[in-house]
Amino acid sequence: MVEEVIVNLDDATQLLSFVIHWKGGVHTTLEMPRPRSAVERKTAQEDLDIIRAMAVRYGDDEIARVLVKLGRTRARGGRWSEHGVYEARRRHGIAGQRRSKQDPEILSLARAAKHCGVSDTAIQRMVAAGVLKLVQLAPFAPWEIRRADLDASPVREVVETLRRTGKLVLPAGEGDTSSRQLPLLS
Asked: What is the rounded CA–CA span in Å between residue 161 and residue 154?
């Protein structure tokens, strides 16, 4: 039935053009995007790095949320999903879990604020001032604040002053003997 098939690739558009010559003399033409090779469909190394770093503590759903917020797409072009992260972990031998593990010693921004009895804004300002340390494995990933850091003297003093006066008084920077007062926005 088919006499010959001619295939051309347009490098600029990556479109394949087909011309099918049928035995009866009729010609059919069609176009389609060039299929990507297996090498082109590999999960990006940056995505695997984020998955590896977050899989220790976070579930596939949280990892997918971060990858989507970062604008990352899967190897075949779709959005990341919980199942997609699971498949990538399985394919690349990355240990992890479907749901996030709660570590009582590592708190999110909201849990840190609740632990101290202050607003999220107060915690954010303490971080910005360098009074409180945090770890964030990737942009848009949850903040990780150690409970021990929240219970340390500098943070406790700031929180006690905030409760007593209603103002967030942060320690002065190095070489500066005055302290800074910031109104608390909640």
From this structure: 11
